[in-house]
Prior knowledge:
Blueprint: H1 20-29, E1 34-40, H2 46-56, E2 59-68, E3 71-77, H3 80-95, H4 101-107, E4 112-116, H5 119-129, E5 134-138, H6 144-154, E6 158-160, H7 172-182, H8 187-192, H9 196-200, H10 208-211
Parallel strand pairs: 1-2, 4-5, 5-6
Antiparallel strand pairs: 2-3, 3-4
Helix pairs in contact: 1-2, 4-5, 5-6
Amino acid sequence: MFTHLHVHSWFSFGLGVSSPEVLVEAAARRGYRTLALTDTNGVYGAVEFQKACEAAGIRPILGAHLVANGQDAVILAEDARGWGTLGRAVSAVHWEPDLALSAQLAVDREGLTVITQDVALLERLVKLSGPAGLCAELRPGPDRHAVLAAARRLGIPAVVTGGVVMAHAEDWNRHRLIHAIHGNGTLRMMARGAGAPMRRAPGACARPPVAVLATPGSAPPPISNATFPTSPTPSPRRP
């Protein structure tokens, strides 16, 4: 069954518009049994997400969407070791302004599944540390064909994601508004695709059925979507 492995809540400021609880509720209503939360450079909503999943009977996958210096990757914690590795990676993004994700993840990705559409990053990681735990991310858009070709060339799985930024299609205009504000732009600029910061944001210019938490029947069929963690997900707790 298709599982959403790249999902932003409103803790991805300027991008996501739905709370972790709303995302989980929508997923449960649409028949999902597993859901990931991968907010940008942080796990700020992990506790709320875990509690909501437990209440709804959904298996949570904890992760983050790391974005640093022109590189980006979704990282998912497979187990308690991966949760610790995820925390170190997030901390490195915030504490090291010149951080290269390729350098960080090449030496420290124990217990992680790494998913990215960045072909150069995939090539670098395979060269430095091998293909273990790496997946190519096929997001909607014209670049997915090149990413799939790179996955086949590198011998790594390809995973379909939606780059979810909202739980419901009717939230599309709100997403556009907060994304325009975050990029110091306007809705008209977004309609024209203008503004470099907005073009770089994942999923921001996708059509609503793509960026929304799609129903299982309408989600794109995965080439491989079974690489998400199989071990018990760690339970984050507030200090």
